[in-house]
Structure of Metal ABC transporter permease:
Amino acid sequence: MPAITATRALRMALFGLTVGCFAASALAAQNIPNNLRGTITAVSDDGITVESITDGSSHRVIIDDDTRLAAVSKSSLDQIEEGTFIGTANVPGEDGQPAKALEMVIFPASMKGTGEGDYPWDMPRGATKGRSGDGKLGGNGSGSTMTNGTVSSTGDGKMSDASSGSTMTNGTVNRAADEDGMMTLTVDYGDGSKQIRVPHDAPTVKVSKGSMDDLKQDAAVFVAGDITQDPIEAKAVIVGLDGTVPPM
């Protein structure tokens, strides 16, 4: 399995939105990304200005021909069935229980199998520092991962290899079931698998191809890029449509 950055894995996934079916091999990431999450405060011909939800700082983001654009709109967990390709940020469960989803992203069928793997990931928008803490992380948390894989089954089970932080899991749903107020999924990602429990109130969105016309002032946005740059050269931008907040 080739080792690349989580940002590169996300870029490859978004590439599938612009060219249709994208055949990707299993990927792994070594470094925890530091993505930008916030609100668009200005739009120009070559980019956007984003106010970070982490600390309120303002960042100029350059968008060029290499930047992959995607959009998300509101969806629901009842759209997940066998064969659905999904992505989810998740954290280890307590007392040996399966991982718990923090959010759910539903991908189009053309992206099934894209970027399968388990990647380090910074905490998604609105995640808490602790399992029961109130402190919010705006996206700069550490120890999380992105997991891309296929949901092969659902039900009770213990995690055999829980990670130390949250993960982003992208995969195809083979079966889904409800237990104890949660949907339990088994996600296969090439050389491994993970069980994930999804609360019924987990923020859920669906992904579609995006364009510069979708980038509007006051829209919520996710930017994959090096936030230490000034300006940031965006590898990928995901914008929320009609008030939707990208939860990843």
The first strand starts at residue 36 and ends at 44.
